[in-house]
Every structure is written in C-alpha cells, then in structure tokens.
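Recall the central idea of this unit: under ordinary conditions, the amino acid sequence of a chain determines the structure it adopts. In this exercise we apply that idea directly, starting from the sequence alone.
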Amino acid sequence: MVTKQLIVNADDFGFTRDVNAGIVEAHRDGILTATTLMANGDAFDDAVRLAKETPSLDIGCHLVLVGAPGFPATIPQLVRAVALGRIPIYEELSKQVRRIVDAGLSPTHLDTHKHTHLLPPVLEAVARISEEFRIPWVRRPFDFPLQPGGVGWKNKLMRLTNGRFRSALARHHCRSTDWFAGFKFTGNYGSEDLINVIRALPEGVTEFMCHPGRCGDDLRAARTRLKESREEELRALTAPEVRAALAEAGVKLVSYRELTASESGIPRRT
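Accordingly, the structure predicted from this sequence is:
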C-alpha cells in the first residue's frame, strides 16, 4: 500500500494568461495535480476556459483579501482592517467562491492569497464557507519540518498556532492534508530542491504549494515579485528527474478530488 501521497498544488490560477498557461503546462507535462483559482484575477475567464478544457486538473479557490484592487495592499494593513471590522470577510470570500461555482466549476479545496486565513477571523470565514459550500479541503500552511520535536521559540509558536488551526477546522468538519510544504521555497527552487523535498516526505498526504507560470508580457506588467521564478518552478515541475524521484521514493501523485472520492485509506494524523 502506498503510504506517501503528494498533491502538487499551484496558487494564482486566473492571475494572468501566461500564469494560466504555465499552470496547465505543469499539469499536462509535469507533476502538478491541482490549482486554486482567483475569482478576481484579471485572467479569470481564461482560467475557467482552460479548466474546462483540462478536466483532469483539480480546481480549488484561491481566496483574496490582500494585494488586489479594493483590498489592503499589505498584510499589516489587512490585519488593521480586520481588527477594526472594516472588511466583511465572510461576505467577500463567499462571493468569490460563488463566482467560481457559477462559472460551472466544482472546487474541491480552499486556500488564501498570502495565507491570510492564518488570521483567526479569516480562518473562521473560510471554515464556514468550506462547510456551507461542501468544499471539504482547506490548506493548513505549516511546512512539515515544523513538527513535534523541533526546538526553539519559533517551533513552539508554530506548533501552538497549528493546534489552534486544527481545532478551528474541526469545528466545521473541514479536512486538511497531513503535511504541507513549499512555503520556504516560494520563488526560489529548482529540480534538485524539489527532489530533496520528495525524498524527505513523511508518511501520509502532503500538499506542495507552487507558483509556476510563463513570464510573458502580462506577468511582467503585473504587481508581483514572482516573475522569472515562475518559469524556474515550471522547469522543475516538468523535469524528468523529478518524476523519477517520485518513483524512487515510492510517492504517489494524487489530487484533492481523488482523495475525496477514494477516502485514500491512509491513517489520518490528529
């Protein structure tokens, strides 16, 4: 029985047309199994079209409260706006999910742009949306090296936050992978780094977050620090040696849709 399963999930589907193209390429020619769609992305319609043309690509929702028109530009500004009650969080995020559903897609998982659901009020809204829209999976964005046994105040703080995060999801019957990876690699990895992650995967189901894309005119004009790095990630995700490393390590590629359908049979960590 396969005891190590990996979901390779791309953020930012719908951001620009060249990002969309790179995500689909990483799925068709590489190891990417899932992506999350930005309902307020400039290339939303293009992403919907590509999703329908690529039914094997598992689609989720990339919920946005920061860094887009009409929202705070930075995380500190968002924290202040949330603390002062200036953003109707549930209403805004449920509107984004509704747009994706109304476009004819069936999302299976939720995450947030810049991990804003680490903020308790945002997490509560996301978990509520997961339950109400019957979208079972919610990202738990804690890289797997930060687990019991680590030392230092940062590890202690992350373990405490992780425990509270789990409890909030459990109240709304949300599911999450056993492990998560990719946060510390964002915008800065190649095929050898990805191979090292694969070799280090723990038992259970891991989500690897990534940001592949083609760096064309649309992306170059966009406000984001991730530009040329998206092509580097795309090369890593489509490298033959990376797929070979999966076979060597006994890791099975899966999607959220597959896990929901099969219930996987792998013992869940609590």
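The beta strands are 4-13, 34-37, 58-63, 109-112, 137-138, 179-181, 204-210, 251-253.
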